[in-house]
């Protein structure tokens, strides 16, 4: 794979793709990646007109109707307001569809204590030949990413303690620009240094993230860089300011093979009746942040 400059918008790379296959018919670790759920506490609550709990159910039903993953990866913004009720809703919804291993990370809308109280505090997940390592890029009450020297030291320790021959790093914020200035200002600011450091570890094969509410597929050296669409609404690619897309709720399959290969595909609930209400946009238009 080719290196992508951390100062330029990401471009699609020639990542190997694979169709979803039932778990019993493949010699892979299969991980389902979902992100940016934005659950709200009330049964009738909406965000930009979207019932985010209903769209999450639709995503899980569609994805888990295709295949049964070995693990579920959730990269933040589980809740929109960081409240206990939203995290409980997530746990209840998930229990209706899936009972396997989960690695769940916070995003900028989440609150650490509340999320930890309901969902626990897992930081890594071991699979045959692979380890998924979570890198917490969020700070409570702050939109932008923040990675400190302490975070990097902790990541180094987790890499050293990894049981797998291969590693996939998961975080909420993108480590590079995605081509949307209003989102890019909140990326991991020291992402270039992070990727350069990770690329020196042959066993680290990629980095997956959310926050951008759109498909991102690129690479840095041998590292796959993969952003996944939201389970609710999407942001339009290459936009100067807050702009919602009409693409449907989505998810990503990650197929991790025993030789360190990463194969991937994005799925969408194409028949989901997405009805957007832009009356809420007035609170967010012109601001370099996600909707309130």
What does this entry look like structurally?
This protein has a single domain, classed as 4-Layer Sandwich (Purple Acid Phosphatase, chain A, domain 2). It has 6 helices and 13 strands. The longest helix is centred in the N-terminal third of the chain and has 15 residues. It is globular and about 45 Å long. The N terminus is likely disordered.
- SSE-based structural type: alpha/beta
CATH superfamily descriptor: Metallo-dependent phosphatases
Oligomer: single chain
Mean pLDDT: 87
Number of strands: 13
Question: In terms of per-residue confidence, which ranges show pLDDT below 50 for 5 or more consecutive residues?
Answer: 1-25, 282-289
Number of helices, counting only DSSP H or I runs of 4 residues or more: 6
Number of domains: 1
From the coordinates shown, what is the CATH architecture? 4-Layer Sandwich
In terms of DSSP E residues, the strand content is 15-25%
CATH topology: Purple Acid Phosphatase, chain A, domain 2
Radius of gyration: 17 Å
Q: Helical amount among residues, as a percent range?
A: 10-25%
CATH class: Alpha Beta
Biggest sheet overview: 6 strands, mixed
- Record the strand order, biggest sheet: 4-5-6-7-9-8
Query: How far is the N terminus from the C terminus?
Result: 38 Å
Shape: globular
**How do the helices and strands follow one another from N- to C-terminus?**
EHEHEHEEHEHHEEEEEEE
